[in-house]
Amino acid sequence: MNAIANPSAGTLPVILYVDDEEGARKYFQRALESQATVLTAPSVDEGKALLTRHGDTISVLVSDQRMPGANGNALLFHAWERHPQIVRVLTTAYSELAQTIEAVNQGRIHRYLPKPWDIATLRLEMKQAADLASLRRRHDRLLGEKLASRRREVLANRIGLLYGLCLADGPQGAALDAYLSGALCARVAAAPAWLLDDYAQLASADACRAAGLARAVRGHLAALDARGAATAQGLALLAELFGPACHIDRDGAAVLTEPAVLAEYLDGSPDAAVSARHAAWLALLLWLARRGASVLSTSSAAGVQCRLTGAGEVPTRAALASWIARC
Question: Which domain of life is it from (predicted)?
Answer without folding.
Answer: Bacteria
